[in-house]
Design goal:
By secondary structure, the chain is mostly beta strands. It is built from 3 helices and 43 strands. It is elongated and about 90 Å long. It has a 21-stranded parallel barrel. The N terminus is likely disordered.
Length: about 575
């Protein structure tokens, strides 16, 4: 943890404001509606301790480490080494004591005519695969093993080198698959680098590891300079300390109902996407996805109700969930995490930061998380107590929204998050999306809005959040540009919205703007907004609208929103 401050300090300002957030419940709707009245200020409403909330992404000093959120405090992270373990002085041979016999030894510097023993090793892996006595394990010496042909793995096999860093390298010729794993085959790969030769130009056939309905187990493996690093059509991939660097199209591509479990992994510096799962389930833990020109993680295509995890806080399969736990997706283009189609995804203690604003005409640009049609995404669902407000996932400094949910039956639930300094809103709920709950979260120094719900969206309860220092900003879409500066903006939502136990301070425009919507207010506080609560378009407000105060009277006519294409 980078800072040892107690979570109690993060709560001091809530205590000073006299708030006591309750268990989520539907707000009562029998209070008499109120009209906008003269603003009321409350100078005792302060935010001492808000400095704990991270404003921007803080990388680790070591490039091979990821600042993983620990869940111990609002700003608590631990720089954790990810990717293959660096071996300063690799031995000539790997440890073979745990390998299944028979074992063949391969050394590219060996004399010709070897028999595959430790004293007389073979020169190439291809020779070992064609040996008359099939090997269960192949031990690879330190050095570069040149692959002039695709290695076809047609039986269960373990390939072990001395390490991916300055250890054992399989150099693949351009224009061919490196390793092709046959159906119903188990391959274990440990302590190696799969590296494409740098002299020849890249081709579409540069697939380092291609498996179909296979079982892959990878540990301490580096894949470099491929078109696609790992391609999995069905089957399973269980990888620990995997790194895929500089892929031209995709670092890891899975389809056909595959299941991927990645831990302590790095996907970086590619021209396309980091991880792409098409109808495949994923379980991602303690990883870094960074500097991919397109998306960091893409989950699309309907998945089965049994091919994923039943719970994300326990191992095993047999459920519908994709699980993302302590993953950092930073400085990618388009979206840090993109989820669409009929699949359920749970995100815990993860960071989505500094997504670049690109491809605005495509409608998916610069968002930390994008939740599309039919997708169901929940952030830190276990964080239901105000004592852990902001201890979950972080959405920081993204080029457009921190989170954008949009599309038919797109569903999102947010608990315990920190959304800070996003250029076009903390949370944006678009047409036909459903957000049943936003709670126990901090919205800090976002531009455009802390929370905004647009016509046709459905928002349930907004509870126990702190929404502060919202600045004026712009949201650019493919056809229109909109300017706002509201803490919470509810515009023609399709159901009653309940707001309970929230604090909204220092919004550059409205603390709360309600247009053509019905909203219930209970136990909210707010001060030093420019305007307090603005109601327009026949909006109906139950509860005390004066509790969210502004310095100026709300204008009688709603400010214009659309400012041009």
């Amino acid at each position: 943890m980078m800072d040892g401050r107690s979570g109690r300090a993060a709560l001091a300002w809530w205590i000073s404001a006299g708030l006591a957030c309750s268990t989520p419940a539907v707000a009562p709707n029998d209070a008499a509606p109120v009209t906008d009245t003269a603003p009321v200020t409350d100078p005792s409403l302060t935010l001492r301790g808000l400095d704990l909330a991270p404003r921007a992404f803080a990388p680790c000093p070591d490039a091979d480490s990821a600042p993983l959120r620990t869940g111990d405090d609002v700003d608590a992270v631990r720089c954790t080494p990810v990717g293959p373990i660096t071996v300063p002085a690799p031995p000539r041979w790997p440890d073979t004591t745990s390998l299944t016999a028979p074992i063949l030894f391969v050394d590219p510097s060996a004399a010709s005519g070897g028999t595959g023993t430790l004293d007389a090793p073979l020169r190439t892996i291809a020779e070992a695969l064609r040996a008359s006595a099939p090997a269960a394990s192949i031990a690879l010496a330190r050095g570069t093993h040149t692959l002039t042909e695709t290695l076809a793995i047609t039986r269960d096999l373990t390939l072990v080198g001395v390490g991916a860093s300055s250890g054992t390298t399989l150099e693949i010729a351009r224009g061919q698959v490196g390793l092709r794993v046959a159906p119903s085959t188990r391959l274990t790969l440990r302590g190696v680098t799969l590296q494409y030769a740098s002299a020849a130009p890249r081709t579409e056939q540069d697939l380092a590891l291609l498996a179909t309905q296979s079982t892959l187990s990878l540990q301490d493996v580096l894949v470099a300079d491929a078109e696609v690093g790992i391609t999995l059509d069905g089957g399973t991939l269980d990888a620990t300390r995997l790194a895929v660097v500089r892929p031209r199209r995709t670092a890891v591509l899975a389809s056909g109902g595959a299941f991927l479990s990645l831990s302590r992994f790095v996907l970086r510096d590619g021209l396309g996407q980091g991880l792409r799962a098409e109808g495949a389930h994923v379980a991602l833990r303690e990883g870094l996805v960074t500097r991919m020109a397109r998306h960091g993680v893409v989950l699309i295509g309907a998945t089965t109700a049994t091919g994923g995890r039943p719970r994300c806080d326990a191992p095993g399969r047999g459920g519908a969930l994709d699980c993302i736990d302590q993953v950092v997706s930073q400085a990618n283009g388009v979206a840090g995490l993109y989820v669409a189609d009929a699949r359920r995804t749970e995100v815990r203690r993860s960071t989505f930061a500094d997504t670049v604003l690109t491809a605005i005409d495509g409608g998916e640009a610069g968002d930390g998380i994008f939740v599309g049609a039919e997708a169901d995404v929940s952030l830190d669902p276990e964080l239901l107590s105000p004592t852990v407000r902001g201890f979950g996932s972080a959405l920081l400094g993204n080029g457009r929204a921190g989170i954008l949910a949009q599309g038919v039956r797109a569903r999102l639930s947010v608990r315990g998050a920190v959304l800070s300094r996003n250029a076009s809103g903390g949370l944006f709920v678009g047409a036909r999306a459903e957000v049943p709950a936003v709670g126990e979260s901090l919205f800090v120094e976002n531009r455009f809005a802390g929370i905004v719900a647009t016509p046709g969206s459905l928002v349930g309860i907004v509870q126990c959040n702190g929404i502060v220092d919202t600045a004026a900003g712009t949201l650019r879409g493919s056809t229109v540009t909109v300017q706002l500066g509201d803490g919470v903006h509810i515009n023609a939502a399709s159901a009653r919205v309940s707001m309970e136990d929230n604090t909204i301070l220092r919004s550059s425009a409205f603390g709360l703007l309600v247009n053509a919507s019905t909203i219930s207010l209970r136990a909210n506080r707010g001060a030093d907004n420019r305007f307090g609560v603005g109601t327009y378009g026949g909006a109906s407000v139950d509860g005390d609208a004066r509790s969210i105060a502004g310095r100026e009277m709300s204008p009688p006519i709603a400010p214009g929103l659309a400012v041009g294409p």
